[in-house]
Amino acid sequence: MEKEQKRVLITGAAGFLGSHLCDRFIKEGFKVIGMDNLSTGSMKNIEHLFPNKDFEFYFHDVTKFVHVPGKLDYILHFASPASPIDYLKIPIQTLKVGSLGTHNLLGLAKEKKSKFLIASTSEIYGDPNIHPQNEEYWGNVNPIGPRGVYDEAKRFMEAITMAYHTYHGLDTRIVRIFNTYGPRMRLNDGRALPAFIGQALRGEDITVFGDGSQTRSFCYVDDQVEGIYRLLMSDYTMPVNIGNPDEITILEFAEEIIKLTGTNQKIIFKELPTDDPKQRQPDITKAKKLLGWEPKVSRQEGLKITYEYFKKVILEK
Ligand code: UDP
After folding, report:
1. Is the CB of residue 254 below 6 angstroms from any atom belonging to ligand 1?
2. Domain-embedded: residue 186
């Protein structure tokens, strides 16, 4: 007998991570239902999937009641503005998609008996007092600062997901995503990587915020998707960090991009945004042990692919 095809709902399907997840699940033989309200996503990221009979798209805002006919084996909630510029521009929507949106999707998962995975983030650790950050750390978040709308929405998202797990017996997964990059990031989303590459390609000065001594650890998107896929298929219900522990200061990162693009751009320093975390590096001991996962793509390799992507995007404009 032929195995029945599994159906997965992916919210934020037209976004950076959501669209890569759609690709991955299509490749694995799933029926993929992508959902997005296109507030920060782009149809360009998924239009190649439209001819595929296993792909379906719903233009919908998950903060409103969500209905999907038929069975759903899995729900992955990846809808949310995800860059500081976005959530400063649409703070209330950011809060709503993490809270009301998650609640609606949990209701759907309960009704359909779906396995449910949420995209949480290293932002729930805030400006961390321990380094590297492991999953047992509770974080240092300013609830009323500019990042609070994102950080607290994600923290609420974890809380309500855990509550549905505990009180309704829902099968849930929580991935804590650290800085991830790759093709389909938006050139103008204000994040360091697209900002620096875009500036280099346009011949502008590279804008480093603060003195550039703050650190981040950048994970290539294929590694991130692999980690998420493995977590979903595992039976572990507590949060798991997925990210690349290869840490770098933002100033060194800017220099790396200048070298990569061969543009010799000047670095200029701008004011550090409020509550910008000083350091960030995932402790991935859990992911290694439980999922047999660790990143495979070096920053050098990943940046090259991403640079080629942005070059094409700029040429098409
Ligand atoms: N950053 C910067 N110049 C830019 C954009 C960002 O120096 O043009 C800094 C930002 O202040 C932060 C780091 O780069 O310290 C990473 O920023 P990003 O927005 O990519 O990610 P997040 O702060 O959410 O980790």
Report:
1. no
2. no
Q: Name the pTM for this structure.
A: 0.97
Give the tens place of pLDDT for each residue, 276-289.
999 999 999 999 99
What is the phi/psi pair of residue 268, to 5°? Answer: -120, 150
Q: Is 47 inside a domain boundary?
A: yes
For the chain, how many structural domains are there in total? 1
Tokens of 154: 């994600």
- The CATH code of the domain that includes 122 is 3.40.50.720
Residues 141 and 275: beta-carbon distance below 8 Å = no
Q: Which of 17, 216, 272 to mutate to test the pocket of ligand 1 (most atoms within 8 A of CB)?
A: 216
Q: Is residue 188 part of a domain?
A: no
Q: Is the CB of 84 under 6 A from ligand 1?
A: yes
Average pLDDT of span 85-100 = 96
- Domain extent for 117: 7-181+221-244+282-296
Please choose from 121, 193, 209 the residue to mutate so as to test ligand 1's pocket, defined by most ligand atoms within 8 A of CB: 209
Burial string for 78-103 (b: 16+ CB within 10 Å, else e) reads bbbbbbbbbbbebbebbbbbbbbbbb
C-beta of 58 in contact with ligand 1 (< 6 A): no
Specify if 312 maps to a domain. Answer: no
